[in-house]
Amino acid sequence: MNIRNSWLAAAILAVIAAPAAAQQTITKRANVSADATIEVSNVQGSVRVSAWDKNEVELVAVLESDKDKLEFEATARIVRIEVDRPDGKYGRNREEAHLTVKVPRGARLIVDTVSADIAVAEVRGEQDLESVSGAVGTQAYDAPVKAASVSGDVTVTGTGGKAAVKTENVSGTATVTGVRGSLEGEVVSGEIHATIAAADNIDVSSVSGNITVDAELTSTASVDMESVSGAITLKIKPPVNADFDIESFSGDIDNCFGPKARDTSKFTPGSELSFTQGSGGARIELQTLSGEINICDR
Question: What angle do CA 59, 54, 81 make, to 5 degrees?
Answer without folding.
Answer: 25
